[in-house]
Amino acid sequence: MSDGQRSPTSDGQIVVSGLTKQYKNVRAVNNLSFTIQPGRVTGFLGPNGAGKTTTLRMLLNLVTPTSGTATISGHRYADLSEPLRHVGAVLEASSAHKGRTGVNHLRVICAAAGLPRQRADEALALVGLTPAAKRKFKGYSLGMKQRLGIAAAMLGDPRVLILDEPANGLDPEGIRWMRGFLKGLAHEGRTVLVSSHLLSEMQLLADDVVIIAAGQLVRQGPVDQVIGSMTQGVRVRVRTPQAEALTTALKGQSATVDADGQGALLVSGVDAATVGRTALAAGVELHELTTERPDLEGVFLELTAGKAGIR
Ligand SMILES: Nc1ncnc2c1ncn2[C@@H]1O[C@H](COP(=O)(O)OP(=O)(O)OP(=O)(O)O)[C@@H](O)[C@H]1O
């Protein structure tokens, strides 16, 4: 892209502002606003039908918003002069002409976009596909197709990368590779926006999260802060041979006590120190005393509870 399009303050930033998409019967995205920063991996999370794909498609000018704006580095995608040099996107597993080799598939894109031919080889190397460069697309596994899609997105050496469910169909080794690859891109200062249902994976991958449900923003922030803000989910797990005595003593401290069905008690409303002190005062023997914080999965379910995903 030309220097004229770069702005020092907004370079690489994605800004979604009041974005709305009304289909005939469904408001897929409803007055959505959030900002994504460069140099970080941001996880875009939401239950099925939350509006993630529609949002990404509006960002990439594949769907026209009913109202609101979505910009990348201060510009609408449609206004970027050389979009592939600025934004790489993988919206679904790569599709290509079945009889074409991986490297030829990328060369065709390079030719159409005015990118140097050798970028095809460089991008294949980047995603570890060099050994399969001359194999035909029809023989590629799903994981190889995902990598080819990412290679295509990287052809223009873009500042911003947008991926819709990139871990779909990958085996554990592929997921580990993807995690390292995307973190590396963010480390280089690029903006990486990834939508996913794999919440446990997001906890390992993302620096920030944007959580939506029913087309609306539910929460945005650094993963740790979003999880840390959920004090409601903090519980203390206790094991004791004197469960009844401990339950009675804790209820006297206004704690809530539930059995976990596997021989332990789950205590909420008081911290671990209070549980230990209460047990000591009541002469109750403890075999385990652990503080449990909700993981992203728990936070996500709690935040999106009651907001029907399928509309
Ligand atoms: N072209 C369309 N016409 C009508 N409704 C649509 C269209 N595209 C999406 N929708 C509806 O908009 C809502 C949001 O869909 P979207 O695919 O954006 O959600 P999502 O969060 O990506 O879901 P998933 O995780 O299941 O892929 C859904 O109710 C969907 O049925």
Short summary of the structure?
The protein folds into two domains: 3-228, Rossmann fold; 235-292, Alpha-Beta Plaits. The protein has helices spanning 52-59, 83-86, 102-113, 118-126, 142-154, 172-187, 199-205, 223-228, 243-251, 272-281, 296-304; strands spanning 14-22, 27-36, 41-45, 67-72, 87-90, 160-164, 191-195, 208-213, 216-222, 235-239, 256-259, 265-268, 288-292. It is α/β, with parallel strands linked by helices and 311 residues long.
Describe the structure.
Helices cover about 35% and strands about 25% of the residues. It is built from 11 helices and 13 strands. The longest helix has 16 residues, at about 170-185. The model is unreliable at about 1-10 (pLDDT under 50). Adenosine-5'-triphosphate (ATP) binds near residues 26, 50, 52, 54 and 311. Adenosine-5'-triphosphate (ATP) binds near residues 23, 48, 51, 52 and 54.
Model regions low in confidence, pLDDT < 50 over at least 5 residues = 1-9
Which sequence of SSEs, written as H and E, runs from N to C? EEEHEHEHHHEHEHEEHEHEEHEH
How many strands, what sense, and barrel or not for the largest sheet?
6 strands, mixed
Radius of gyration: 24 Å
The bound ligands are:
adenosine-5'-triphosphate
Features:
311 residues, alpha/beta, Rossmann fold, 2 domains, elongated, binds adenosine-5'-triphosphate, ATP hydrolysis activity, ABC_transporter-like_CS, P-loop_NTPase, transport
Spell out the blueprint of helices and strands.
Blueprint: E1 14-22, E2 27-36, E3 41-45, H1 52-59, E4 67-72, H2 83-86, E5 87-90, H3 102-113, H4 118-126, H5 142-154, E6 160-164, H6 172-187, E7 191-195, H7 199-205, E8 208-213, E9 216-222, H8 223-228, E10 235-239, H9 243-251, E11 256-259, E12 265-268, H10 272-281, E13 288-292, H11 296-304
Parallel strand pairs: 3-7, 3-8, 5-6, 6-7
Antiparallel strand pairs: 1-2, 1-4, 8-9, 10-12, 10-13, 11-12
Helix pairs in contact: 3-4, 4-5
The structure holds adenosine-5'-triphosphate.
Adenosine-5'-triphosphate (ATP) binds at residues 23, 26, 28, 46, 48-54, 311.
